[in-house]
Design a protein that fits this description.
alpha/beta, Rossmann fold, Isoleucyl-tRNA Synthetase, Domain 1, OB fold (Dihydrolipoamide Acetyltransferase, E2P), 3 domains, seven-stranded parallel sheet, six-stranded antiparallel sheet, binds 5'-O-[(L-methionyl)-sulphamoyl]adenosine
C-alpha cells in the first residue's frame, strides 16, 4: 500500500523521570497537530513512546534500589497516565525494551555492518551520561559537557563506529534540494554549519554493563542508546515486520523535537542512518525552543520541574474550572504564548492573564452572554433566523482560511490569533447590535438573527480550537446542544450555512472558565505600551530616591545586560517606528520590539550583535510581546545601535 496517512512523531522520552511542562510541550503540540489533521479528514498516525535502554535509566533505577526493567515498566506506565490526563490521543506507543523494537535494531545493525557503514575500531573520548553523548576533546566547554555543563567521563573502549563522515555530501545536497526539510529556517543553518565543519564517525556501542541491546554476535557490548532510540520511528510502524503498514506511513510527515536534540541527532545522525538503509527521509524535522519557568531553566534539581497536571490542578482549584478544562488552558497557553520554534518563559502571571483575558473574557463571555440572552428571550431554544443575512459567515470564512494556512505551517500563535479575531468580532457584533434593545423594540426576527449569528461564531470557534482544547470544544458543543454530532464534524463544517437546526435546545450557560479573582494584581489587564513608555516603566521600577538621581551599584546590578544576535527582523504593521526582532541569547531565543525602524532596515540588522536589557518585564507593544529592550544612542531622533566592538563576542555574553 502506498503512503496514505499523515505520520507525526515526538521524541521518545527517557524513563528516568516523569514529564514536566517543558518536555510535555513536544507531546502537547504533536497531539494538537495530529488532531488538526484528523479534523481535516486525513488519515493520521501519531507516534510517541519511551526511551528505555539508556545508562541513565539504569542509574535512576539503581538509585531507587530497583531492577532497570521493573523501573522502566513503572515509568513507562506513568508516562501513559500523564498523556491520558492531558488527553493525548496517540495512535502508537513504542517502548525500546519491546521485542518488536529490539529485533529491528539488531537487524539494522547487522545490515549496516555487512554493507560497511558500520566498522570496528577503538574509541577514546569523553562521554556525558545525562546527555548520552560522545564528545571529542575540542567539543567540551571548560572540561564539561558543552550541552548540559555537567561532568563528563573518559571512555576508552573497543567499539563499533557508524561511518557518518561518508554521508556529509549527501546530507548537504538533500538539505539544499528540499527547502522546508529543516524547520524553523534559522535552525537549518546550524545543521548546515555542523555538517560543513566535518562529520566524524560515531561510536555506536558501549561496554555491556547489563542494560541495553547487546550487539549481535558481540554480547560484551551494547548498542549506543541514540542509535537504538532513533530506530523507534520505523520499528513502531512495522519496518521489516509489516510492509503494508510501514509503506502506508513512511516517510514521516513531521518529526518534532526540542532544539537540544535537533542538529546532531535528528538532522544528521538519523538521516544518515536512513540513507544507509536506503529509506526515504522524513519530510520535515522541526526543532522547537525551550521553556523556562519564571526565567529559570526547568530542572528537577532546581525543584521547579512542575508537571502540566499540577499547573492545571492549581488553576482548577483557584478558578473553580473543571480539571480537564484547566488542562486545556495549559495546552492552549503553550501553543498560544510563544511562536513555535522560539524559546518561551512560563510564568503563573502570564498563564493567569491568558486564562482571564483570552478564555474567560473573550471565548467564555461570548458563549455565556449569548446563551443567557437565548434563555431569556427564546427559552434557550434556537429560533428561526428568518432575517438571517449570513451573520458573521464571511468573517468566519476568512479566519478559518487564515487559521488553516497558519496551522499547516505550524504557526500556532498566528492561527489561534485568527480564531480569536472572530471571537472578538462576535462579542463586538453583540455589543453593536444591542439585542436587549431589539427585544424592547419588539424586533423579534432581527433579535433571532443576531443571537443565531453569535452562536454561529461560538460553534465555529469550538471546531477550530478543538485540536488545542478538546474538552473545552466538547463542552461548548454540549451547551450549544450539538454534542452528539460534534465529534464527527470536520474543519470544513466551520463554514456550514445555517449550522443549527431550528428548535435545538441549548444548555446552560455554565461558565466554562470562571474568571480568576480580580483581587490579585496579576489579573490586571495587559497594558499596551509604546517604546518610550517601556523605558519609563523601567525607570519607574524601584526608582532611586536620592535627589541627585545617582543610582546605587546594587540598583544597577539588578539590570541584566547581555549581548544578543539578531536572527530575524521584520516591520510591524501600522507602526512606522517599530521593528520586531527575533534574537538569540546563545541558549535562548526571544522576540523584542525596537523603535529603530526609521534608522535601520530589517535586513540590515540580521546577523548583528547588539546589547539588550534581558530582564525587563515583558510588555505588549502593538500586539507583540517584547521580551527585553535593545540599547541605542539617539542623535536627532535617529537610533544608533550599541554593539560590541568585536562581533565574535558570543550571544548571551553578560555586559557589565
Ligand atoms: N530520549 C531522548 C530522545 C530520543 S528520540 C529518538 C530525549 N529525551 S528527553 O526525555 O530528555 O527529552 C524529550 C523532549 O523534551 C525533547 O524534545 C526535549 O527537547 C524536550 N524538552 C526537555 N526539556 C524541555 C524544555 N524545558 N522545554 C521544551 N522542551 C524540552 O532527549
Amino acid at each position: 500500500m502506498p503512503k496514505s496517512a499523515y505520520y507525526i512523531t515526538t521524541p521518545i522520552y527517557y524513563v528516568n523521570d516523569v514529564p514536566h511542562i517543558g518536555n510535555a510541550y513536544t507531546t502537547i503540540i504533536a497531539d494538537a497537530v495530529a488532531r488538526y489533521h484528523r479534523l481535516k479528514g486525513e488519515n493520521t498516525f501519531f507516534l510517541t513512546g519511551t526511551d528505555e535502554n539508556a545508562i541513565k535509566v539504569a542509574a535512576a533505577a539503581k538509585d531507587r534500589g530497583m531492577e532497570p526493567k521493573a523501573f522502566a515498566d513503572q515509568l513507562a506506565e506513568q508516562f501513559r497516565e500523564v498523556w491520558k490526563t492531558l488527553d493525548i490521543q496517540y495512535d502508537g506507543f513504542i517502548r525500546t525494551t519491546e521485542p518488536r523494537h529490539i529485533k529491528v535494531v539488531e537487524a539494522i545493525f547487522s545490515r549496516l555492518l555487512e554493507q560497511g557503514d558500520i566498522y570496528k575500531g577503538n574509541y577514546e573520548g569523553w562521554y556525558c551520561v545525562p546527555c548520552e553523548t560522545f564528545f571529542a576533546e575540542g567539543e567540551l566547554e571548560c572540561g564539561k559537557c558543552s550541552s548540559c555543563g555537567r561532568e563528563v567521563e573518559w571512555v576508552a573502549e573497543e567499539n563499533y563506529y557508524f561511518r557518518l563522515s561518508a554521508f556529509s555530501e549527501r546530507l548537504l545536497a538533500h538539505i539544499e534540494a528540499n527547502p522546508g526539510f529543516l524547520q524553523p529556517e534559522f535552525r537549518k543553518n546550524e545543521v548546515v554549519n555542523f555538517i560543513k565543519q566535518g562529520l566524524r564517525d560515531v561510536s555506536i556501542t558501549r561496554k555491556n554493563q547489563g542494560w541495553g541491546i547487546p550487539v549481535p554476535g558481540d554480547p560484551g557490548k551494547v548498542i549506543y542508546v541514540w542509535f537504538d532510540a532513533l530506530i523507534n520511528y520505523i520499528s513502531a510502524i512495522g519496518y521489516l515486520a509489516d510492509d503494508e503498514k510501514f509503506n502506508s506511513l513512511w516517510p514521516a510527515d513531521l518529526q518534532l523535537m526540542g532544539k537540544d536534540i535537533f542538529v546532531r541527532f535528528h538532522c544528521t545522525f538519523w538521516p544518515a542512518m536512513l540513507m544507509g538503509l536506503g529509506l526515504e527521509l522524513p519530510k520535515v524535522f522541526f526543532g522547537h525552543g525551550f521553556w523556562t519557568l519564571d526565567g529559570e531553566k526547568i530542572s528537577k534539581s532546581k525543584g521547579n520541574a512542575i508537571s502540566p497536571a499540577e499547573l492545571a490542578g492549581d488553576l482548577a482549584e483557584e478558578s473553580g474550572a473543571r480539571l480537564d478544562i484547566a488542562l486545556d488552558a495549559v495546552r492552549y497557553f503553550v501553543a498560544r504564548e510563544v511562536s513555535f520554534g522560539l524559546d518561551g518563559d512560563f510564568s503563573m502571571k502570564s498563564f493567569r492573564n491568558r486564562f482571564n483575558s483570552d478564555l474567560a473574557n473573550d471565548l467564555g463571555n461570548l458563549l455565556n452572554r449569548t446563551l443567557s440572552m437565548l434563555n431569556k428571550y427564546f427559552d434557550g431554544v434556537i429560533p428561526d433566523p428568518k432575517h438571517f443575512s449570513g451573520g458573521l459567515a464571511p468573517v468566519i470564512a476568512g479566519a478559518s482560511n487564515t487559521a488553516a494556512e497558519a496551522f499547516d505551517k505550524l504557526e500556532f500563535t498566528k492561527g489561534l490569533e485568527a480564531i480569536w479575531s472572530i471571537i472578538s468580532a462576535g462579542n463586538k457584533f453583540v455589543n453593536d447590535m444591542k439585542p436587549w434593545d431589539l427585544e424592547k423594540e419588539g424586533k423579534t426576527d432581527e433579535l433571532a438573527g443576531v443571537l443565531y449569528s453569535a452562536l454561529e461564531v461560538a460553534r465555529a470557534a469550538a471546531i477550530m480550537v478543538s485540536p488545542f482544547m478538546p474538552a473545552t470544544a466538547m463542552e461548548i458543543a454540549r451547551q450549544l446542544g450539538i454534542k452528539d454530532q460534534f465529534a464527527s464534524l470536520k474543519w470544513a463544517n466551520v463554514n456550514d450555512e445555517k449550522p443549527f437546526a431550528v428548535g435545538t435546545k441549548t444548555q446552560g450557560p455554565d461558565p466554562i472558565f470562571p474568571r480568576l479573582g480580580s483581587k490579585k494584581k496579576e489579573d490586571k489587564p495587559k497594558v499596551e505600551q509604546i517604546p518610550e513608555e517601556v523605558s519609563k516603566a523601567v525607570e519607574a521600577q524601584e526608582a532611586p530616591k536620592p535627589a541627585d538621581e545617582l543610582i546605587s551599584y546594587d540598583y544597577f546590578s539588578k539590570m541584566k545586560l547581555k549581548v544578543a544576535e539578531v536572527i530575524a527582523a521584520e516591520r510591524i504593521e501600522k507602526a512606522d517606528k517599530l521593528l520586531k526582532l527575533k534574537i538569540s541569547l546563545g541558549d535562548e531565543e526571544r522576540e523584542i520590539v525596537a523603535g529603530v525602524a526609521e534608522s535601520y532596515a530589517p535586513e540590515e540588522l540580521v546577523g548583528r550583535k547588539i546589547v539588550i536589557i534581558a530582564n525587563l518585564q515583558p510588555a505588549k507593544i502593538r500586539g507583540v510581546i517584547s521580551n527585553g529592550m535593545l540599547l541605542a544612542a539617539e542623535i536627532d531622533g535617529k537610533a544608533i545601535l550599541l554593539q560590541p566592538e568585536n562581533s565574535d563576542v558570543p550571544a548571551g555574553t553578560k555586559v557589565k
